[in-house]
UniProtKB/TrEMBL annotation:
<dbReference type="Pfam" id="PF07609">
    <property type="entry name" value="DUF1572"/>
</dbReference>
<dbReference type="InterPro" id="IPR034660">
    <property type="entry name" value="DinB/YfiT-like"/>
</dbReference>
<protein>
    <submittedName>
        <fullName>DUF1572 domain-containing protein</fullName>
    </submittedName>
</protein>
<dbReference type="InterPro" id="IPR011466">
    <property type="entry name" value="DUF1572"/>
</dbReference>
Amino acid sequence: MDKVRQIQEELIWNAGYRMDESLRMIKICMSGLSEKDIWKKPNKSSNSIGNLILHLCGNITQYGIASLRNEQDDRKRDEEFSVSSGYTKEELVQKLSDTIAEAKRTFFDTPLEELLRKREVQGFNFSGIGNIIHVTEHLSYHTGQIALWTKILNNKSLGFYDGVDLNAKNR
């Protein structure tokens, strides 16, 4: 296998791993929340966990699926933040899981030329690689918000890394 293909596969594998880690953490958060909790907002200028998950699905679809597949962008971003009910915890987790799985398939199926091609998404100009990086970091960013709001609501550790020695030194 040539080096370029190895780099492409390594990038895509690592992006997928990070996305799966964020999904794992969100699932842990959701398991400790009530149906009512997922639609609570800390204040008027913040979003509920339900809104954040809908927002993540919209963003991942826009940047990581439609853009890389050269499909029409049908995102209605403002609606992601205006919803205040209508989805259960289970439905939200399934929607996010399905969206992440579809994005990961798209990343894997995207030819190198499309990964390198610049395209405009949401007024920004990125390559396909830039879109993959954006999707990954954006998901991670909002995962942190979901984790913080969950900790505030429940006042307890989420145990994301229980059983892992986080003090282990590099080898």
